[in-house]
Task: structure prediction
Amino acid sequence: MQYGTTRVFRFLLGMLLGTSAAFATLPRANAQPRSVKADDIRVVARHGRSWRGTVGRYPVLVLRGSHSERGLAMGVLCAREIIRGGNEYVIPSGAHGAELYRRMQLPLVAKFDWSDRYRQELKGVLAGIEIALPKPADRKLSRLDRAIEFRDLQAGNVVADLSGVKCSSMMAQGAATADGKPVIARNLDFYCNPAMLASQCIVAVEPNEPGLRATLGVSWMGLVGCYTAVSDRGVFLAMHNARGLPRRMGKWRPRSFALRDALESACGASAIADITAVLRRRPVVCGNNILVGSAGAGEPVEGKSPLAAVLEWDGGAAEKGVTIRRPADGDPTIVCTNHYLLRRKDAGPAGSVSRYKTLAAWSRSCAGGKATFDFETARKAISSVAKGYTAHSVIAWPADRKLAVALSARPGSSAVRNKWVTVDLKTLLKVESGR
Result:
């Protein structure tokens, strides 16, 4: 791997041995992003009721149907990007890259708990790739000298479990926003090479299984979990890495899969409790801070907002794996970076603490009435903690099921320096559906 290889494989080696393991200036001002209309969306390919297109300069996927149907559509519509990602990111580069992959990475894949749902979805992805690229030579992973297989798709979907994402987020609501509704700003920081950036996309998912809700987020072609997303019930969540407590023995769940399970089933008024319950049933290999924000109505919990929390989640036994951190009494804001505030008592990594303090200053300004957490303030806040490896930046309005998105254009260029495009779930799901 050209980016992050050393960190990933130091972690992998530790796993096999049984051990645990800002920009100073703001970017050029961007205009307020206008909401995308159906006429602004260009559909370039279709499979069944799913489609691939562009919104502004960014790729977009809309995936509909059952688990296997959505997987099949992704495979058909994104085959070449998935093969490129396997060749250039999932499998390490260098003289010994293929051997490291076979002897270290694939054995770890077997340690994860792959539920029937995600097996169906990934088998669908593989079948779709085979439809789109019928010649084995076109499906070849050159570093392995063979065509892509199911286990390679599994390996790609746990990259985030084995190499942490260093992210920053802030949520404001009530007196801190113009209309009292929640606004969330979020950076996902991850070392992406050109292949990963080329496959990063806006994705809307509309399951047809009973009880599963539609979602809108930012992800990568070939990955079927959740990293940054909002549901049609107005629930938002975002993944952040953290130093977790020692893991319990047993199978681990890919954390992006657990987050998708949680988001698709959460109700607006009870989102924190609903997501916590799901995560407690899904032990993971790494530590996490999961920012959750909801546009639902609810009664205060111990005098604190029921609509926002950071879930400190890992594979440890304490509090069944999840500690809930809510905003301070009377505070309409909450900040999240990459260290625990409740579940561990150590200070946390210096970079995470620094970003937390920077966002906390923005938080105090909005909570104290000196600023309103609107798009422009949110953009400036996340720009102040962005990195050269910020892969995507998102500003979310959960009540409107709407995201403003900026994607990194190339390695070393932060997403916040790119243009913003605003999309809402309802508009994307209307395209090609006849509704």
